[in-house]
Design brief:
The chain has 377 residues and is of the alpha+beta class. Helix content is 25%, strand content 27%. It folds into three domains: 1-73, Helix Hairpins, CATH 1.10.287; 75-249, Sandwich (HSP40/DNAj peptide-binding domain), CATH 2.60.260; 256-367, Urease metallochaperone UreE, N-terminal domain (HSP40/DNAj peptide-binding domain). The protein is elongated.
Length: 377
């Protein structure tokens, strides 16, 4: 039997509206028409109508039957052609249809996650940082109750405080009783006739707070620091969740971090690599004197032990690895070219020569380094 009432028009929503939009429309009308707020008989009748409309449109099965022109409140008829919710039938047989009672308004708040950028020095030595967080805190006006001063929650007239509505449906298995959260009180069993004007009945408000975060030495990008109880306060003034601060390390202009070690590149002129030299390297611990031995070859590495990043879950620190980039000049003056030719003649190095793999192994050359890389030596 078709239903003549236009439930969409009663709630003031379009036929393609989603569940959230339908819920918002019903809540707005319920606040205006609820008998505790508006005792006018006409308002009471209209409240019953919009509640029935919400009961249908918030239920996917009933809404589908209504859109097809059927009566969503009479799914009967028996047989396999009748409309029924197989999930409700299974709930009824295996305990899901038993009353569950009202759900509490007071619930724990959600955990929160923010990202904090730190520089390399802070990851090595640790730091104290102040951060600003937009979060939910207990409403000071109602102290989390959600009600206006001098008022209290009222027992829901629709579910009588049970928090759920029971429906009886007929199916090929017989009559099945199912329970769903009460659409008027959203399963709480109580309503708030006069909500707090500061928090709109939520028991919490959003604000910006300043917190101090202790950054331990050794943190890296992706490390999370947990601040227990500094997350959002829950609905109804419930216990707050935790706040997690995720570290994001800013790139350093000189050092590249790989685990607990630091790497940098130093350019060494060809003559300095041949004769040997020294330099001052500015590390995060201060200036370090670095000796470059005579005859240094390209791709040589000098290691400064214990000058890297502290081990977060251990003792000691990583190392600094200095990669030497021996630079061959590309432009020479006539005098420089003459001197190099004299040196090459003196050393018998006027031309290139092919080196065997055996010679490369003996001198620790390219093939030796290549085999060592594959063999893990």
């Amino acid at each position: 039997m078709p239903v003549a009432t236009d439930y969409y028009a009663l709630l003031g929503v379009a036929r393609d509206s989603g569940p959230d939009e339908i819920k918002r429309a019903y809540r707005k009308l319920a606040r205006e028409l609820h008998p505790d707020v508006n005792p006018d008989p006409a308002a009471v009748d209209r409240f019953k109508e919009v509640t029935a409309a919400y009961e249908v449109l918030s239920d996917p099965e009933k809404r589908q039957m209504y859109d097809l022109g059927g009566d969503p409140f009479h799914a009967g008829g028996g047989g396999f052609g009748a409309s029924f919710d197989f999930g409700d039938i299974m709930d009824a047989f295996f305990g899901g249809g038993q009353p569950r009672g009202p759900r509490p308004r007071v619930r724990r708040g959600q955990d929160a996650l923010i990202r904090l950028q730190v520089d390399l020095a802070e990851t090595i030595f640790g730091a104290e940082r102040e951060i600003q967080v937009d979060t939910a805190v207990v409403c000071t006006s109602c102290e989390g109750a959600g009600t206006a001063p001098g008022t209290h929650p009222a027992t829901c007239p629709m579910c009588k405080g049970r928090g759920e509505i029971q429906n009886v449906q007929r199916s090929f298995l017989g009559q099945v009783m199912t329970s769903r959260p009460c659409p008027q009180c959203q399963g709480f069993g109580t309503t708030i006739p006069t909500p707090c004007v500061e928090c709109s009945g939520e028991g919490r408000v959003r604000t910006r707070t300043t917190l101090t975060v202790s950054i331990p030495p050794g943190v890296d990008t992706g490390t999370r620091i947990q601040l227990a109880g500094r997350g959002e306060v829950g609905p109804g003034g419930g216990d707050p969740g935790d706040l997690f601060v995720e570290i994001v390390q800013i790139a350093h202009p000189v050092f590249e971090r790989r685990g607990d070690d630091l790497h940098c590149v130093v350019e060494v002129p060809m003559a300095s690599a041949a004769l040997g030299t020294s330099m001052i390297l500015e590390t995060l611990d201060g200036d370090e004197s670095v000796q470059i031995a005579a005859g240094t070859q390209p791709q040589a590495v000098i290691t400064l032990r214990g000058r890297g990043v502290p081990r977060l879950r251990g003792s000691g620190r990583g190392d600094i690895h200095i990669h030497l980039d021996v630079r061959t000049p590309t432009r020479l003056t006539a005098r420089q070219e003459e001197l190099l030719r004299d040196l090459a003649s003196e050393r018998g190095e006027e031309g290139a020569r092919l080196r065997t793999q055996e010679q490369s192994e003996e001198s620790g050359g390219f093939f030796s380094r290549l085999r060592g890389a594959f063999s893990g030596r």
